[in-house]
Amino acid sequence: MSAPEAVIFDAYGTLLDINAAMAAQAARLGPRWEALSAEWRAKQLEYTWVRSLTGAAHHEDFWLCTRDALDFVFARHGIADRALAVDLMQAYRTLPPYPEVPAMLQGLREQGIGTAILSNGTPGMLADALEAAGIAPLVDEVLSVEEVGVFKPDPRVYRLATRQYGCPPDRLVFVSANAWDAQAAHAFNMRVVRVKRAAAPDEYGLDAAGVPVLRDLSGLQDLVA
Question: Of 46, 102, 104, 198, which has the maximum CB count within 10 A?
Answer without folding.
Answer: 104
